[in-house]
Amino acid sequence: MVIDPRFYKEQLDELGIEGLEIDPSSEEEALELLGEVEEAIRNLKRIRYNLHLDMRLIRREYLEKLKDPQVRADVKRRRALIDERDSTLGPYEGVDRIIDTLLDQLEEAAISLREYAGLEDAAGTEGW
pLDDT class for 124, splitting at 50, 70, 90? Predict the structure, then answer.
């Protein structure tokens, strides 16, 4: 059973990541924010995993339809199925791009927070 892409978008909205203030005023606050950011990253990766499962199921479903000898012989039907598949996958791919963007931003924020808290130096090596 494939989940509607709007459900994934709602999950992203519920995480409350957009608009998250990442401006610590102390090392303790940086560590607290780092925990929140790392939790958000884990949640985004779980959502992305499930999203990718659904996308694979959709692709597999259309692949089976495209294997039908009648469809293979009819270029118009084949093209229509491919267009339908692409149209179906479009919203999922949009959510996937949003997740990738958020992950990139959060991973950059996590690096900055680790540096601020003294857990990493600017070169990215662990503190001693």
Answer: low
Annotated domain spans of the chain: 26-116
- Residue 127 structure tokens: 């503190």
Summarize pLDDT for 65-122 with one digit per residue, the tens. 999 999 999 999 999 999 999 999 999 999 999 999 999 999 999 999 999 988 876 5
Q: What is the DSSP code string of 83-123?
A: HHHHHHHHHHHHHHHHHHHHHHHHHHHHHHHHHHHTSB-TT
- Contact assessment for residue 127 and residue 121, using Cβ atoms and an 8 Å cutoff: yes
Report which residue type is found at 96: D
Question: 9 CB contacts (<8 Å, ≥6 apart)?
Answer: 95, 98
